[in-house]
Design brief:
Length: 707
């Protein structure tokens, strides 16, 4: 060691002011000389004579730099350096190791122990302070870099930012730890792009691939937002921005960028939107959203030339006299009311809570007044059943006001105002009620509702009856069968024809009970007559999943042969579900029941379909038959239809036979059966029996009972 005392070194005024240096050496003279040099350079100096003392001082004083000899008693410099690096308080403190000039092994061991640099002995006093100053400056730069990185990491964590890089040659994505946490990916290995795609919501995958193509091709747009698909509730939203990385040839070789988790922002936006558009108590749309939906319905209805209706509803909840409902139960009652209202809605309709106990319902795609009548009837019927709230059963009455676009108003506010006025009129009635803003519509709908109720009662009270219209074999003049036709003897209204009530029976579902009654009554009436029996089947009856079993059960009860029963269906039944209808018809035919296609020529008649159906009879529509004498085209159609059917082994019935001339033409065409007012009107069973005793084709011109 050079023992010559140094003087003040040049450049000492460049020392970091106040920097503290810990000198660790077991030789007191060496420590003194180093102290002198460093203090002359403006540093503050701490001393330790062994490694153990040095580690304690590092934790307690946190010096800015440690200058430590390699070989010392108690704890050598290597072990002391390792201990300093293990300490959280001093692990980044620069450590300069003092070692002999030719001790290469010591230098290697020093670096392995975590030393920052080394100074050889004998010490070059002129350079000592410069080496210390350089080490301090480097440490300060590293500290600033660490702090910058920590600040960046904190900022990225707060902003939920995560760097990434996509290699285009192999399609592998290099993810930062933050992005791996977002995606739930284990390990540190790159991830194949196709694996990432599986985690993206299906509808956003195309947008992600388009984003990659835009960045790859150097376009200006370089951002995209995607949602992650998975079990996360609520869902995760990632905002990606990226830029291209070019190789030496100027081609894009990779894409690098940042992913930001914007889930909280999107969820907050969704929450704000929900609160702005939905009622927090019932979860139903509020007035704001309902207005938007009505405006949308108006635009759609105008384009499709359809109507829609706004129903203004309030519900009065009347508790049973023996029940006691606490005041704080009002919210639970309102939620129960909302659920009851929802239970009667169709799929395309909308329900909202306007305020208090007032609700509104939007009925779209209205093609007939019957749909509105059905909706109001369902509302009234729904509240005929008590509401179950906790342990209470509550009776409620519902008042409904109806306004229809466009007749009752074309603006949202006008429709709400008019439906509210109609609701006020409905409240004047006792109990549940409905009122339409337009008087004519109100009368028609009320008449419809009254008819529905009367039909229910009519079935229970036996107000229905059957009339039978004969069918005559045109070749022999004999009556071969009858068709059973339903009539309703409605009290106060007289005998009602089917066109006044069949549609209502069909829409309300009463057609099933009515159809069973018709079949039982007709089979019992005709059972002892040598005639076939034709009965009409409605679309709803035909769609019954076990129609054949249902019919055979009734026939067995009555004792009526299946081969004497002929079911008349319209072609529309087959058009709606051709394959299903054909399967049902084959099942019926296999049981011996005959099938007749009614009103042929009025629908989308298809010869291909005619060939596939297991038909026994085809009935030509009366409009063709009644114009035989005046229309050569209709006559040609009737003739060709008869000839075609005979080639297919199908009998032909001509409906609407009104006179002898038409009958003669049909007989000339080879038609099998005639039916119409010119032969006989539909008759009650007693009058039919009298007529059958004397009826022949030759007498038809002068003798037409009921004509």
């Amino acid at each position: 060691m050079n023992m010559n005392p140094p003087g003040l070194l040049p450049g000492s005024n460049e020392a970091d002011p106040g920097a503290r240096v810990l000198i660790v050496d077991d030789e007191g003279l060496t420590r003194m000389m180093i102290r002198r040099v460093l203090e002359d350079s403006g540093y503050r100096v701490l001393e330790a004579q062994d490694g153990q003392t040095a580690t304690r001082l590092c934790d307690a004083e946190q010096p800015d730099l440690v200058l430590m000899d390699v070989r010392m008693p108690v704890m050598n410099g290597f072990d002391a350096c390792r201990a300093i690096r293990r300490s959280l308080r001093s692990r980044h403190t620069p450590v300069l190791m003092l070692t002999a000039l030719d001790d290469v092994m010591a230098v290697r061991l020093a670096f392995e122990a975590g030393a920052t640099d080394f100074i050889t002995k004998p010490i070059n006093w002129a350079l000592l302070s410069q080496r210390v100053r350089y080490a301090l400056r480097t440490a300060r730069t590293e500290r600033e870099l660490r702090e910058s990185q920590l600040a960046l990491a904190r900022a990225q964590k707060i902003a939920r930012l995560a760097p990434w890089r996509l290699e285009l040659d192999d399609g592998r994505l290099h993810c930062s730890r933050e992005l791996r946490d977002m995606l739930g990916l284990p390990g540190n290995e790159p991830v194949a792009m196709r694996r990432l795609l599986r985690q993206v919501a299906f509808e956003d995958r195309g947008a992600l691939l388009a984003f990659v193509r835009r960045v790859r091709d150097g376009r200006s747009e370089s951002e995209v937002e995607i949602r992650l698909d998975g079990s996360q509730q609520p869902s995760r939203h990632l905002f990606l921005s990226g830029d291209a990385m070019l190789d030496e040839g100027g081609r894009t070789c990779a894409i690098f960028g940042v992913a930001q988790d914007v889930s909280e922002r999107r969820h907050a936006e969704a929450e704000r939107s929900y609160r702005a558009h939905f009622d927090p108590l019932t979860g139903l749309p509020n007035r704001v959203l309902f207005r938007d939906r009505v405006a949308t319905a108006a635009a759609a209805a105008q384009q499709r030339q359809q109507r829609f209706a706004v129903l203004n509803i309030d519900v009065d909840v009347l508790q049973r006299t023996q029940a006691s409902v606490a005041a704080d139960a009002s919210e639970r009652i309102l939620r129960a009311v909302a659920r009851r209202l929802e239970s009667v809605m169709r799929e395309p309709d909308s329900l909202c809570r306007l305020e208090g106990d007032t609700f509104a319902m939007l009925l779209t795609d209205i093609e007939a007044e019957a749909q509105i009548a059905g909706a109001t009837r369902r509302l009234v019927e729904a509240f005929a059943v008590p509401l179950q709230v906790d342990d209470w059963e509550l009776l409620a009455s519902v008042h409904v006001g109806v306004a229809i676009w466009p007749g009752d108003g074309q603006e949202v506010d006008t429709l709400l105002l008019h439906s509210g006025a109609a609701r006020s009129r409905a409240r004047e009635a006792i109990g549940s009620s409905c009122h339409f803003y337009t008087a004519d519509m109100h009368n028609r709908v009320i008449d419809r509702l009254n008819t529905e109720v009367a039909l229910y009662r009519g079935l229970e009270r036996g107000e229905f009856e059957l009339h039978y219209q004969p069918k005559v074999d045109l070749a022999s003049g004999r009556v071969s069968g009858v068709e059973a036709l339903l009539r309703w003897n409605r009290p106060g209204c007289g005998l009602q024809m089917p066109d006044r009530f069949i549609d209502i029976l069909e829409q309300t579902g009463l057609i099933m009970d009515a159809g069973d009654w018709v079949l039982r009554e007709a089979c019992a009436a005709v059972r002892h007559l040598p005639l076939s029996l034709a009965v009409n089947v409605s679309p709803r009856q035909f769609q019954h999943p076990r129609l054949g079993e249902r019919l055979m059960r009734i026939l067995d009860e009555i004792g009526f042969p299946a081969d004497r029963l002929e079911l008349e269906i319209t072609e529309q039944i087959v058009v709606e579900d051709e394959e299903g209808a054909i399967a049902t018809l084959h099942d019926l035919a296999s049981r011996g029941i005959r099938i007749a296609l009614d009103d042929y020529g009025t629908g989308f008649s298809s010869l291909q379909r005619l060939k596939r159906l297991p038909l026994h009879t085809l009935k030509i529509d009366k409009d063709f038959v009644m114009s035989l004498e005046t229309s050569r085209a209709d006559a040609a159609i009737v003739r060709s239809t008869i000839e075609l059917c005979h080639q297919l082994d199908i009998h032909v019935v001509a409906e609407g036979v009104e006179n002898d001339a038409a009958m003669a033409m049909l007989r000339g065409f080879g038609c099998d059966i005639g039916q119409g007012y010119g032969i006989c009107r539909p008759l009650p069973l007693a009058r039919l029996t009298d007529w059958l005793g004397t009826a022949t084709v030759s007498a038809l011109a002068g003798r037409r009972p009921g004509g």
